Every structure is written in structure tokens, then in C-alpha cells.
């Protein structure tokens, strides 16, 4: 009988490769993968965690109650980067290690940002709809080549976007609480104030984590500073952009368009943003590629094994 029980609620864990499962099974772990079509609530997690030694979670709500219910729990392995869904203080109090999978999906998210920039600038979704409904009308787009890109949060994903943007000869501005001057010099990137970035950029892309300091970071005031021709892209977390302020800015053409991979509520049932033509919404697919799913699974499994074998 295996020594440890690992409960997995991360929906796409092992979807693209068996290797993550094999790592766990080869290290004395019984693996229980919970079938779910959305992140689980705390109430749903509590019965699952009771006799688990380890939990591998996606965006499921790992609250203090969940952590207290895990009597044998030693590690919460977050399958992904942001851990705003895990109560870190509660885990710390109980000596439970919380890990994540940085570097595993940053290329996938950075690729998506470039895709969304082109979708917005060339009206790709609207043109596709016209053609499929029998039309052949053209919508004039704008180039992204040589434009100014503002990156809020020059961490792993922000840097990936910056490197790709340099392939389009973009003028890259960034704002971050920490400055990596070596990277900025190597790639010709300029650090500036938050306000300067908003005022000067043709495209603003958000890559800060969701935290008390970043909740509502982009609201009415910030959207009001952006150019009327500018686009906003958020692939980071819902809640960083104030969605009602964004709705007003888009409906009143204060900015030209937005692309959101993340929303305050996912799925965004009844969000008025769904009614607008100048916003593109994807279903939190930033890290959902074959490569990222394999990488995240392997790292999340290895993190569990490292803690259990400590
Ligand atoms: P990272 O930690 O490497 O980078 C975050 C950067 O934000 C850091 O440079 C940090 O200094 C900066 N920062 C933090 N707080 C700030 C603040 N208040 N003001 C300005 N800068 C601040 O993280 P990463 O790997 O680049 O990921 C960024 C975020 O992307 C994650 O937190 C996660 O929420 C999100 N993400 C989304 C998807 C998706 O599927 N859409 C996938 C992966 C990650």
C-alpha cells in the first residue's frame, strides 16, 4: 500500500503526458484525481482533503477551513503561478508548505499576449464573423510594429512579452516595484512611472500578481489616462482591472479595445462586458498549452515529492 495519498483537483493535471502521474506513483504515492469542470469551492474541497498528505490544486479555493480539515496535509502544491486562492497565513500556521510552478507556463502566456495584441489591432474576430456570415467587408486595422507597449509587472511573463515585442520593433515601457536594469539594458526597455506608462502606451499589458496592492489597480482614473486609441490586455488575474470602470471606458470609447483572459468571476455570467464588440474574452487559457500543461504537471508533482520525502 502506498505511503502517501495525493489528491489532485487541478483540472488539466496530466492531460498532455503521463509523466506527472508516474513521478508521484514512483514515489510511494496513491494518486486520486478529482474530475471537475471548474475550480472547486472550499465546501467541495473539505471532504477531499481529510486524509490527504498532499493536495495539487488549480484555482480551487484553499481557505483556512480547507487547510484545517487536512489533518495529515503536508504540502499544497499550486499547479500554476498565482497563489491568491491559497490562504498562505493559515498554511504557515500549520507548517504546511505551499509551492507553485513558476517558469512552467510563462512562454504560453507571453505567446497569448502577442496573439491578443494582433487580434485587437487587426479586428480579427470581427472580420472572421463577417466572412462566416457571408460578407467580405474589410475593417481597417492598425500596425503593432513600432508602437509603444506598456508592461505592468516585468516579471517572468512580462519579460517574455518584452522579448517578443522587440521582434516587432516596439518601444517597450515598463513599470514594476523592482527594477531589473540588466534585463532592461539588454533588451532596450525603459522603466517609467505608472502614470507615464498609461499615458504613452498604445497597448498596455498587465503582468502583476493579484494582491491587496494590485486589486483595482486599473480603474476609472487609470483608464482615463490611456489614449483613446489604446488597447488594454489582462492575462494576469481578474480583480486587477475594475470591470465596471472598464465597461464604461469601452462603451464610451475612452479606449479602443481590451482583451481579457481572466475575469473577476469565471465564467463571467451576466457580465455586461460580454455585450461589447470592442472586448475580446478568452476562458483563462493563458497557460493552457500542451507544453505548459506537461511542464506544470511535472513541476507540481516534483514539488510534492520533495516535501513528502524531506
Ligand atoms: P512574476 O512573479 O515573475 O512577476 C510579477 C512581477 O510583478 C514582478 O516583477 C513583481 O515585482 C511585479 N509586481 C508585484 N507587485 C507589483 C505592484 N504592486 N506594482 C508593480 N509591480 C508589481 O510572475 P509571472 O510568472 O510573470 O506571473 C504574473 C501573473 O500572471 C501571476 O501572478 C498570475 O496571476 C498570472 N498568470 C496567469 C496565467 C493565465 O493562465 N492567464 C498563467 C500564469 C500566470
Automatic annotation (TrEMBL):
Residues 25-310 form the D-isomer specific 2-hydroxyacid dehydrogenase catalytic domain. Keywords: Amino-acid biosynthesis, NAD, Oxidoreductase. GO terms for molecular function: NAD binding; phosphoglycerate dehydrogenase activity. GO terms for biological process: amino acid biosynthetic process. Pfam families: 2-Hacid_dh, 2-Hacid_dh_C. It comes from the Bacteria. Residues 114-286 form the D-isomer specific 2-hydroxyacid dehydrogenase NAD-binding domain. InterPro entries: D-2-hydroxyacid_DH, D-isomer_2_OHA_DH_cat_dom, D-isomer_DH_CS, D-isomer_DH_CS1, D-isomer_DH_NAD-bd, NAD(P)-bd_dom_sf. Its EC number is 1.1.1.95. Belongs to the D-isomer specific 2-hydroxyacid dehydrogenase family. This is Phosphoglycerate dehydrogenase. It comes from Thermoanaerobacter italicus (strain DSM 9252 / Ab9). The lineage of its organism: Bacteria, Bacillati, Bacillota, Clostridia, Thermoanaerobacterales.
